[in-house]
Design goal:
mainly beta, 4 helices, transmembrane beta strand, 789 residues
Amino acid sequence: MKINIFNIIWLLILISSKSFSQPNPGSLKGRILSAEEEPVAGATVQFQNTIISTKTDANGDFRFSAIPAGTYVLIVSNIGYIAHKQNLIITSGKNPFLNLQLSESKQELREVNISSNRKSYQVKPSSTATRMDLPLLETPQSVQIVSSEVMHDRQAYTLNELASTFTGMKANNGNGSFSMRGFTAYSPTDASFLLYNGIRGNLFLWSQQPLLYNVASVELLRGPSGALFSEGAPGGVINFITKKPLLSEQYNVELSLGSWNFRRASVDLTGPLTKNKKLLYRAIIGYDRSKSFRNDQDKENIFLAPSLTYLFSENTNLNLELNYAHQKAVHQYDNGTFIRTRPDGSFDFNYYPDNLTIQSPTDYGKTNNSSATLTFNHRFNDRLKLTMVQRAVRNTLDFTDHIPVGKIKNDSISRAYQDWQTDRFSLQTTAYSSYDTKTGPLKHQIIVGTDYNRYGWTKNDYQYKPSTRISIFNPDYSHDPPAATVPAEESDDNKRVTNLTGFYIQDQISFGKQLKALFSIRHDHYDAKETPLSARDNKQGDQLQASGWIPRVGLVYLPLAQLSVYGTYLRSFNPQTSNNVLSGGPFPTRKATQYELGSKADFFNQQLSTTVSVYEIKYANILTSAPTEENSHRQAAIDGTRSRGVEFSATGTIQNFNIIAGYAYNEHVILSTSAFGKKGDRFANAPKHIANLWVKYNLDCSSVKGLGIASGVRYVSDQVGLISNQNFILPAYTVLDAALNYQTGRYNIQFNAYNLTNKRYFTGSRSSTVTAGLGDPFNYRIGLSYQIR
């Protein structure tokens, strides 16, 4: 994809010269009741620090329309009642309904004031898990949402840097590989584990860290989520909520500097383009460049995200969002740092220096990722709504790399060379409607939807060649890369197209206010074909046809208004990545089944949200090598693995403290003995214990008003780095972080220090005991942001 970056930047600046930023219109309605469930008439309902306000009618009902999208504090008050305060998110085209209760008070009502620098981490509603605007308390699944405030306070600019904020999640290396509930989510095998606004189509390739320039919040839906989103990683699905055009003008610029020559700049422009405020825009431009403590780890990113929204009426809108991400790197894949094997077979993780790498200065990676998403929302009436989405994604990669071959001997290692060019695509069409109705005393929220996804690649040109052996301490790269005349030991040259068609129906039934049941059923059909493009690809091709039903059942009981207990049964299935007949295919489809029980509660006047969950996931039909004398390439599907665990998370604000805390226990083991491993063996990159804590204190004293102090700790217990070698155990680690920020007027200055004790730690491993992913040593970032409007 050829594109003139500077012309696009200039065009966006011209477009934005008229206006400068804030959120897309949404609406809100609800009902205010007393503790005796009587309507409270004349209550004041107001969005704090805005002029948006109304009063309830004789039935206790209220309604707002054309609210700028964004995060708000809603205050409900009335004489004789205790004021109610609630955080909520208004999303473009969404129409949530709130049922709120006021408690009687004999004291005079006082105004509730919240300091502007005390921005809450708490996000209560999520429409992604069920495609309905449900409070998390009523959602029968473990869902965690990290807001833009958390990203800002941590100066987290990629998903890898944000991953440790989620309970039970970690980045396995410097690429797009993550562990959730003990399962590895990695794009080549789990293409849909990363969603955008609830729609399939990952913008970034697996060799990259997903960027957060245009991301407003990040959601983790734990466990398989096939009922709505089709295939996905068994441990969870990540959903990016992107920033949308706003009704009011805003202009924000951010600059950051940090260790290893890190430089980052971004602008975010938004507002109306027409006088009647029917046409809105948003333009996000980002650039970053950095080196590393590792040799030859230079990386450069350019990111563009223009978007337009047209408001036909308060009931109808159309949004177009474009994304373009260009990355140029010397080493796009991070193959980790060397690990020494002692003579007795144990491992020395501290023998080789941090900066050494298997890769060569001649390696490079160039990617161009682009996407276009068109979303149409229409509300026919208060009960019936329709959403239609068309998303197109294209990813091109030009990449070379050196990888380890065999074991380290006498501090030297043999290497192989990879040369890869690929052009990948995804075309996703989604349409769904929601309908609210009643059958007698039962209330129904029904979702009916259909998906069509055509994805694959038009080019996959890959060659694997032998390369030179190097001394680890004194490498000689003069013969890199191998000459073009060196024959490839492995070669692919093919194209692949997969057509996925699915439809689903979901019904949430309310048995009064305390008991709710969720039933979903989905049917998916896959039709895929891989075709050789030249004689270099000596395979016979790969074909796939698979279909199946995916059920989901959930139950929620609310004994108290701010306490729920839930149980859920989730399923998903993924087509095999290989069904080649030469390998013994076709193979049965991979299937994930989860049982989960949990409880959610809000404390401290609903400012702290907690979730406790217990789960079991079984993942069946994993492919493994099963060679025979007649067929050395034969594979077989095995019983699979089982993951069990307990999780606790807490997010919110208590007075001047912002808090995110979590603990996860997970045991992920193999269920049967095969070439994959022995029964009872631990799964790779799946630590049994992960804990995280981040606390920020916002000072309110007049002399230091605007100052925030934060600190955090991350703990990860030991983990097996390779299933086939259970003695290859990466050590446990604890990492400490800290931050300071000072906000005055429209300026915010931020300083973050990471890994304060300079702990040497390993995050995970890929496919050998020779290398492992190495965590960053002590480093820092300084950020400055300025909001013009």
